[in-house]
Amino acid sequence: MKTSHGCRGRLQYVILAEGPQGFHNVTGHFKGHALPATFLIILSLWWSTRNILKYVCKKQKQTFYLGSKALFHRLELLEGTVLVGMALTGMAVHQFIPEGAHLTLFKEGQWNHLLNWHHFTMYFFFGLVGVADILCVTIRSLPSSLPKLMLSNALFVEAFIFHNHTHGWKMVEIFMHQLLGLVFFLTGLVAFMEFLLQNNVLLELLRSSLTMLQGSWFFQIDSVLYSPSWALAWKLMDSDNIMFLTICFCWHYAVSFIIIGANYAFVTW
Amino acid sequence: MKTSHGCRGRLQYVILAEGPQGFHNVTGHFKGHALPATFLIILSLWWSTRNILKYVCKKQKQTFYLGSKALFHRLELLEGTVLVGMALTGMAVHQFIPEGAHLTLFKEGQWNHLLNWHHFTMYFFFGLVGVADILCVTIRSLPSSLPKLMLSNALFVEAFIFHNHTHGWKMVEIFMHQLLGLVFFLTGLVAFMEFLLQNNVLLELLRSSLTMLQGSWFFQIDSVLYSPSWALAWKLMDSDNIMFLTICFCWHYAVSFIIIGANYAFVTW
Amino acid sequence: MKTSHGCRGRLQYVILAEGPQGFHNVTGHFKGHALPATFLIILSLWWSTRNILKYVCKKQKQTFYLGSKALFHRLELLEGTVLVGMALTGMAVHQFIPEGAHLTLFKEGQWNHLLNWHHFTMYFFFGLVGVADILCVTIRSLPSSLPKLMLSNALFVEAFIFHNHTHGWKMVEIFMHQLLGLVFFLTGLVAFMEFLLQNNVLLELLRSSLTMLQGSWFFQIDSVLYSPSWALAWKLMDSDNIMFLTICFCWHYAVSFIIIGANYAFVTW
Amino acid sequence: MKTSHGCRGRLQYVILAEGPQGFHNVTGHFKGHALPATFLIILSLWWSTRNILKYVCKKQKQTFYLGSKALFHRLELLEGTVLVGMALTGMAVHQFIPEGAHLTLFKEGQWNHLLNWHHFTMYFFFGLVGVADILCVTIRSLPSSLPKLMLSNALFVEAFIFHNHTHGWKMVEIFMHQLLGLVFFLTGLVAFMEFLLQNNVLLELLRSSLTMLQGSWFFQIDSVLYSPSWALAWKLMDSDNIMFLTICFCWHYAVSFIIIGANYAFVTW
């Protein structure tokens, strides 16, 4: 008899094996995951490019760098605006799609579309990062590390929500979402370290690669759990799947490293 | 079949579902929670105002700041006295209200009002912070970061007590108190970082907003668990409630951020 | 129905409630705990006195401090020798008392007195700290922070051993030993921070007070679990006891703080 | 009734005691463990020798050190090449031995030799460290702390894989592999600290001794679980074994400390 992957998963396993398996609607999720996935991958590419450029400029010509400071400020302003825009889009999507919450939190004696409200809250915190970005560029008296702190906060909040996101799901689903929560937590940790130790280019690239891992893992979740053709092929209770997904996760990480490295080579060239 | 939110909650669930549900007196708690909640919110507003003032003074005029150093010392002395006063009030309340412990630890072969003794101990450690504040201002040879260390210690102790505070309670009660313990732990962590890295204004504001979160979450606990009219409306074993409270907690956090931000705008203006 | 304090304790509880309760010999432990308890309390008083003296010397007279450097080196040498001596005594006691292991690890097809070997290993690592102390004073080319690193290592090892020390015990026993393991872990963490950030007097005093907490909690364990008269009075499966011990632990901590503070007042005076 | 060592192990125990005990092929593992074990021990000796040499050179003659900088760069290049070579060997072994995966991930409706793919992934990440070493020496514009970051990453990835490596195994097997995962995690933590705080010789030696502990613990795992003569002698479900292995692990650690210390004495002499 095979056992599942952790205390949580194992108990889940025991309970589900005994009781009736909870029906879980999968079609609505696909759209919900593809959007943030694309967003996160673009964000990671953008962050890595900006940080590599900044590092290279700083190393090669001090004067040239000072000249381009205004440019970087303008880029930061743009970044903040885009972040706010993306967050508003995400929040609207989760409210006004047909399966959305339609701004109703409590309906007919029970909570209404709580998973949509979860996603809504996550987008909201990313929106706050964008607002902090914009405020920090426009108001000079604010400490310059504020956006880093807000980013780290937002990531910790996502990790916290993911940790409480998987009630009543099946083993493989839980495992995949817990891994996502773990990456969010680690990215938050790296962002917090950046907040404390400013101007460490490797930490910034590490954060970029972890952000890319978030995006690509979102796509992996989609392809395993919610794509119409594969959904039946995966046995959601088999612990062999856990062992495969463990190394699959590491491969995603390795690929994100290699992409960031290639980006570095491209930018310096 | 829905499952509960963690290893602890889930087992709790299994055990309670089988055995007789422990009766839990709720009326006495309301007063016990409203007091520290109000106290913590006032404290967080006061801390944020003081830290913003200090930061702005420092940035604008070095000379003006040096002149106001005596004022800040006097404010710290006042803060210490108020903290000691609040702690003594809290300790007295939990001993001498009708449902209090009346200084008796062991009565008729069993422990007497242990929850009151828990609260008593928590107030005592906050009192120690106040004492450290006063000592540090009056005796100059003491290291100036002592109050930060004592504060971080007090918060870790609260987190530890909260972690062992919820024996035999129901799922939603446990979850809400564990979240409170988590905030205390995180605030303690931030205070410890302040102790190591002095004069980082953002860490101080982060601590203020986490303190405000503690206060507002105390009120949320009251309104969910102990208010006369709502108490019956909440099903304390439903995991949907856990999922709602997760995002509710994040909203409290977002609101505390916004209030601290508004305070910043108000003070600098 | 009351439930126990954590995942570990709760499962323990369930299993023990079903199976026959394992008989647990208590008389041999009393001597085994009183020795390290006394040792740790003396050590904490000595450490706090030395660190306060060093801090006060440094603050008041730079010249006087330089003159007394030789004295501090001699004291460190003495400290190392005493530590090695205590460790050797402890190791010998656990081997050659009547209930000891008598240097036999495996006897009659099963492990022989593993708990004694556990204590033996703990003393051994404290002995290594003493050796590092002596080496560091005699050989000047060694980095001066070596003893701090060894101390932190020794404490982490103790915490690790305590974590795996309680197989088949009852709930209250496990809880008390886990708390001890927690204090060892925290003391190790503080010692590691001292290793990274040298010359922070408050961290050194925090370590002293945590060491005192270790010692006094050893005595508390003795009085709860192994003293002949009390042993029957404590119901080892009652979760009310856990809730009392939680605050009792905090009181021990508060007392150790106050003693270190009194020591500070005494030394500076 | 004895209980097992943690939440994971205990549940494992309960489940296995009820269900049929999963058959577990042991002969193929011996070769798989002896290779990395030898590799890690050689690596740790090499690292410690290099770091001690560097430290001593730096302390004694500033000029001599500057002259030998080219030598150290050449050594780093060699180290990178050897790491890549070892990683490629390890990856090939796990694919092309008779029990290997033969580059097939999915065969006959189920995952094919997942444990081999796990080991393959671990070697791959060590290979990345070697690549980073080589790149960092040849391309000067790269930040010099890149190899440390990659090493810490590789170690965290190993720890993560080990944590999900033991599905369906027996208690002693799980415990031994979890300890290995713990050492990988701690070594990763130390490497990350080295990345943040450069040129701390004690952290480098600590990493060396933890690496040696990894190697020697690999050998211990072999001798306990997979050697033909001992395999039957160990009862894999007995919690006394856990208690012995706990201190055995500490002894391995102490021995690795003493070997690194002897190496220090030898090199300085």
Automatic annotation (TrEMBL), chains A, B, C, D:
Organism: Microcebus murinus
InterPro entries, A to Z: DUF716, TMEM45
UniProt keyword terms in alphabetical order: Membrane, Transmembrane, Transmembrane helix
Family (UniProt): Belongs to the TMEM45 family.
Example of a GO cellular component annotation carried by this entry: membrane
Cellular location(s): Membrane
Superkingdom of this protein's organism: Eukaryota
Source organism phylogeny: Eukaryota, Metazoa, Chordata, Craniata, Vertebrata
UniProt KW Transmembrane helix keyword: yes
Protein name, per record: Transmembrane protein 45A
Main location: membrane
Its membrane topology: Multi-pass membrane protein
Transmembrane stretches, start-end: 34-56, 77-97, 117-139, 179-197, 244-266
